[in-house]
Amino acid sequence: AGKAKEVTTASDVWALGVMLFQMLTEKLPFTGGSAVEVMRRITQEEPEISSSGKLTTRKGDGAKDGKPTAGEGVTAASLGRVHPDLATLILRCLEKRPEKRLPSAGYLADELERFLNGEPIESRAVGTVERVWKLARRNKAVTLAVVGAVTCLVLGTAVSVYQAVKARAAQRLALMQKKESDEIAEIILETVHGMDEHLTGRNVNPDHLREELLRRVGEFQGDPRRKAVMLDELSTLLNKPSDLKLFEVVLAEVQPFLDADDPLLWSMRYRVTLKRMHLTEADSVEGQEFRDELRRIVAWQEGHLAGDDGQIYKTKYALAEELVQEVRSRASLQEAEGLLKGCIENYQKAGENFDSILCRIELMTAIFEQGRRQEALKLGRETCDFAMEKFGEKHSITGRAYGRLAKHCREAGQVEESIAHGRRAMEIYWQTVGPDYMRAKSSLKALSSTLLKQGDLEGNLELMRAEVKVCDQQLGPADAYTLVRVEALLETLRQMNLKDEARELGGLWLERVRLIDGPLPASAAGLLVQHAVTLMKLGEDADARRLLQQLPGLMGQMEGEIADFTRFVPLADALRECGRPQEAGVILRKIVAVCERQDEEEPRAAAKLLGKARERMAVTGSVRVTEQQPVKRK
């Protein structure tokens, strides 16, 4: 009571710090036996991360003791090994003096977006806090989901995009927004804590958390504008084709409340257009229409936003990337070159950053595809040098620059340089974002292909062994991606007639997975098949048959997206070649079921994989193709 005037941006930032701390530790940053004790700790002590990885408190000037309180006994492992940048943001939010906190909730949202994009945050670490929390490699997706939820909370708490910023000083509006933000906070916290698994659990499914969060936020009955803002900021999480419908619905709901020049309207139009464009063939009429819409959005932004507003250049980059990666005509490459050079010029004035390097990478490709290869390679080398100088080997953007340069060196016939840059990219990815990162996977595939084309089978084998070792160390032996890479290594060992090594590795890995999980997890189905094939190649059919008895149960439990099942087609082929058509049929029927179930979400991928599965089922006699209905095509 009597503190209404203190409901300020700094108060919101403090509250967000408390909520983020609680979401990641399931504890409050300050506890005590009484309200007085809690207040004393709030005013005199600060949360700290000790060198042991435990949350503790730090003495303030008036503290009487230094006993650990908040989060006592919470280890780094139970925290899900949160990235140190996230720890810095939490502690900056919880600074005692308001002027030392992050300047606003909107600034926190920007920092969180930078964190989600793999960019370095701009906030300085608090004091001498030891930043020992490790990157949550085994649960990166969960950390992403939690931070995305907090980003949503930030926007729901304190950001009014168009009119409410000026009205924030009004006490009544502040209290109303506080009430609505409390509702949103409750939605998010209930979502997080209502999941079957704890955030730190090994088997957390971030997709379930994401879907539940969206369901609860969708039920929010507050200002339609605020709901739209939340979804706008959650767009980094909403990357599935089915999410487009949600954006279209919310845009339709909020549009009657917005005038033609409301920035929120144009931001939502940008989100919807970008998602539509990514789901459409680039050479279709619709694809052209969506690119034209992005051009209209750029024109509006240039006429209504400040000349150095970052959103202008994000939109230009999105359009240029589509022109370079998907359209690829000479006219589109020339247009993209102009857009990207304009972006780079702006970033040079404002101070070079992460986005500047992204633009340089795409500009390299735009120039290369126009036939100016040496100019492009020169730019690529300069971009790699600049990325090394700016971010070093401890940021994924440097790996991205080396990976793209490796691609173009390979295409230009400079194979040795391509291999060197490809290895550099892999090393950077492995020590920054991990081996299961999308671009790390594509870089590995490209490097492996280059080595094989050069006839360097031993070099490729060593690369695969190194990746399995990194996966084991960073993700763990039972991680789904680790298992996929062990499967690939087993197949390569057999192809190189190293069957004894394959037998030893496959048997050892199955035992390691059992030791961790008891029974085999469903994700080990592919490993089981690969090991069984190895045994059959060595003439150990009885052991292989016993092993394959587990296959129906594992395939029945297995979940995932269509891409997760693509590798099972050659596994079914291998079983059939070894005289095991029944087990091959188990795999193929599972693939058919998954494709039919996910046809709505991934129609093209479903149709392609379903065709392969049914073709093989006809060969094995598992099913008559004439009895199957064709998959719907979009």
From TrEMBL:
Cleaved signal peptide residues: none
Keywords associated with the record: Membrane, Transmembrane, Transmembrane helix
Keyword Endoplasmic reticulum: no
Basic and acidic residues compositional bias, start-end: 58-67
A single Gene Ontology CC term: cytoplasm
Molecular function terms, GO-annotated: ATP binding; protein serine/threonine kinase activity
Record-given protein name: Tetratricopeptide (TPR) repeat protein
Ranges where the Protein kinase domain occurs: 1-116
Protein source organism: Prosthecobacter vanneervenii
Taxonomy of the source species: Bacteria, Pseudomonadati, Verrucomicrobiota, Verrucomicrobiia, Verrucomicrobiales
Chain spans, region Disordered: 46-74
Membrane-crossing residue ranges in chain numbering: 141-162
Superkingdom to which the source organism belongs: Bacteria
Keyword Transmembrane helix among record annotations: yes
